[in-house]
Here is the input.
Amino acid sequence: MLRPTSKTYERTPPIIQRRRRLTVGQQAFLFTLPAIIATVFLIGFPLLYTVWLSLHRWYGSHEVPMDWMGLRNYADVLLRDEYFQRSFLITAVFTVFTVTAAVVFGLGLALLLNRKFRGNTLVLSLLMIPVVSTPVSLSMTWRYILHYEGALNWISRSLGLGTHAWLGTQLVIPSLIVVDVTRWTPLVMLIILAGLSSLPSEPYEAAMIDGASSVQMLRYITLPLLRPFIGVAALIRLIDAIKTFDEVLVISGGGPAGASETLYMYAYKVAFSFLTFGYVSAVLILLFLFILVASLAVVRLRRASW
Amino acid sequence: MVANRVSTYSENLARRWVGTAGFYVTVVGALVPIMFPYCWMLTSSLKTQLENNTFPPSLIFNPTLNNFAKVIVETNLPMVLLNSLIVGVASTGLGLALGLPCAFAIARFRIPALGVIVLVARMLPGIAMLLPWYIMFARLQLVGTHTALILSHLSVTLPLIIWLSIGFFEDLPAELMDAAAVDGCSLFGAFWRIALPLVRPGIAAGAVLAFISSWNNFLYSLILGGSMRLAPVAAYNMIFEFDVNWGAVNAAAVLTTWPVILLSLPFGKNLVKGLTLGSVKG
Here is the structure.
């Protein structure tokens, strides 16, 4: 349908030997080809290789051949590896709290800022900083803030709350959650704010005529209409929360005594310290499957009614 | 909405003033915990080691640039930042060259399957690809080269660029493309001469975000960088190098993250649009 009409061809002088044009479908295929090839080489093959490794026992040496293990690596990881089980629990707790808090605060902040006010541009520019800042660098400062003689203990003592070992066994996960929430609330806010500005005004006008209160409008108009935006923000946050690594490595190193060893942290440790490639690959694939399952759950939740 | 009694002008004014003041107090209250680390990073980097190790912290101090001088002289940081720049620009450039035509085709011909693949790529834990990459690059003796770093960062920038630009290309009216086709413009012509110039601001924002994601990437650079250190890796090493010298640690943090923060500022609204558009159109 998008091809030039036959008349165009008739008008072309027969002397000029035109190369036959590719159909639009073929052209579109050529457009996507480079990206597909790059993705296959950079992501596809490596992933398949990791899956392949996860079905074997291999110590990374070419003298010793791989042993076929079937799914035994997976069974070992899931059923017998208590460090993996502990990391799984830590990651689950961390993720649930950090995603919920970021979405709640982000939603609140978006509703608050969804108006014209003086300093609007400044506030939004400031809130861009956490979104783009380098996690490692930011975490270095957090390490300083959270250490025993750091700013947080100074603040908490000034407020009469006493001093605490923020990076001790008890508080390290709550501390990391606070770090994560302060960093990612702005992104959630920006996504929801974009959603708010795209909402139609008619339902509000109708509700106004019907004498609805602002709470009712929030509950019955704004929140339902915002659902896709909240869902996407939660999904993005969920994926990244499960993959949290830089912050943990810099701030606590997974410690003390593994109290903050998230799944990603655990995968990193086994991957580059023990040379049991098959086992490590099984851990990595399981990590990916968890993210996939959790994401699907959020997508499902998004479609369900509230 | 009906007032029970007629309120006077001054009462209204007072109520509005209290409302406005309350609003600003809430905004500032929400901003303080979010912005505090960045302020603390800056002020600590300007303090002496003595001032940084006193408890409670000193709020009034004579700013000094010694920490920055120390970090720059002792750690070869300019070279590190240059390497980060090279890898970021190259992986973003490659990402644009490969990703833009793909995003254009996806938006024009509605190929949702490819969009899903891009989303799955985002879910993948990078570490799952890192092991095969490491084995491969080690065998090719590419660990510690720009090539290995650029290719690994491309796996981050490419899905991001595709993801963001699909949204921008979809915003173009379909009639425009149809008109171009009727006028005998090839698909490449429509892409190169019509679509690209129109979405340029969006693309710029997408490129900046891709560059930032490359600059911020830590794990790939740590494993595949070998002796070549990029900004986050160098910063991470300085935690141990300078140990309790928090002034130097924070100066390193400032020098490694403020380049991207400053880079993002001029793009303001477009960057926000890129971030949210790319994330919402799923």
User: Anything to note?
Assistant: The two ends of chain A are 44 Å apart (CA to CA). Residues 4-10 of chain A have pLDDT under 50 and may be disordered. The beta strands of chain A are 56-57, 67-68.
